[in-house]
Amino acid sequence: MAAIAMEVEAVEDQQQLTEMNNNVMCQLADPEGTPLGPPMYLPQNAGPKELQQMVNKLLHNEEKLPYVFYVSDQELIVQLGSYLQKHKVSVEKVLTIVYQPQAVFRIRSVSRCSATIAGHTEAVLSVAFSPDGRQLASGSGDTTVRFWDQNTQTPLFTCTGHKNWVLCIAWSPDGKHLVSGSKAGELQCWDPQTGKPSGGPLIGHKKWITGLSWEPLHLKAPCRRFVSSSKDGDARIWDISTRKSVICLSGHTLAVTCVKWGGDGVIYTGSQDCTIKVWETSQGKLIRELKGHGHWVNSLALSTEYVLRTGAFDHTAKQYSSPEEMKEVALERYNKMKGNAPERLVSGSDDFTMFLWEPAVSKHPKTRMTGHQQLVNHVYFSPDGQWVASASFDKSVKLWNGITGKFIAAFRGHVGPVYQISWSADSRLLLSGSKDSTLKVWDIRTKKLKQDLPGHADEVFAVDWSPDGEKVASGGRDRVLKLWMG
Length: 486
Known about the structure:
It is a single chain. The chain starts with a helix and ends with a strand. 13% of the residues lie in helices and 41% in strands. A hairpin with a 6-residue loop joins strand 7 (124-129) and strand 8 (136-140). A 5-stranded mixed β-sheet has the order 2-1-5-3-4. Strands 6-37-36-35 form a 4-stranded antiparallel β-sheet, with no helix packed on it. The protein has a 4-stranded antiparallel β-sheet with strand order 7-8-9-10, with no helix packed on it. By secondary structure, it is mostly beta strands. It is globular, with a radius of gyration of 25 Å.
């Protein structure tokens, strides 16, 4: 009997040993690299589903949230065992698995043009949905701003008053105002409910307006102040209640090409003088200068941009009764999005490169992002801040890790320069508009073209995906506004 018992014990030992060998030592970590609990042995047959249950448990999530998992920047879609075999990874080392929260809701890809709306008599240069996604505005070379009725898909208001091309437009995050800037350098504020100007033009800039950005709603409600950047080398902060330029941010030696009002309350300006400047907004003092680009800075993007743009509004379309309530919700959304990491900034330049910065932490870039063969025209963080997309004159759109700046994928398919990009609210799809007259939708998970949207007769200058995810608007040289649906 003793011999049999020893035999059984030996077999059990052998099984335990095999099981040990079959397990993989893993360390779960969030996208910032913070470990979730100690390293642990996981069976080789564990896959995304088991990992999801584990993360929800370790984070004590009351509602089970969806996560996606990455091992060295590659999405884990199989069981650990087959991943290790395929990638010839040693079981000896600790395997770091990064978990990334996904949006609970899902946005359908747009697949067809639902309306082609004529009205503008020159090229459409900018299109923008309101923060709640219910209204749509456009600016054009015909010197007008137009508001469109999305239900009847017809023009709602035509706003006249500008003396030159309307180059940029921006909605206040509470949805109560739209401001537009022209090639003549004047700014105009409009009431979206009536299409009427709220007072006369805002005068101060000597050359054309290159960018507009509103003070975040979580810092100030109702929305009163916005900042404009201009070819004259200055940026100006305006108060729409006094209709005056309150502060002039001067210091750049060449045109200011882009401007962003950050969630921490500072303003970032990018310029043709190759620098990015960071300003405080009570007196307009220069806080720091970000240097590194060898040519013009064309575009700036903030990791928190989506929540700053949408304020208190999300995909649930909830409406609010007071500015105080909106401010509170906006602050909650901002804090949740930002987590305990600093706000990140990406700059795209004529020198074909991009830089990832954490301006609150350092004046030195976190990383330099190279790979484009032509100038970088537009950079944009995904709503969840996990990705950065860049559009270039080299006809490609590139995808980067929004935290490390590491290159992830190149989307090729356009046959002309890519002018503008926009994200779906769930960060799963990316839209691009090009000189080649098409829009394209790219799938972030498969890194492939999801939808090809021809239909414009000429170059597509402007695209926007509505914050509620329902539709896409595009405009360009053919003077029409197109709406696209799922």
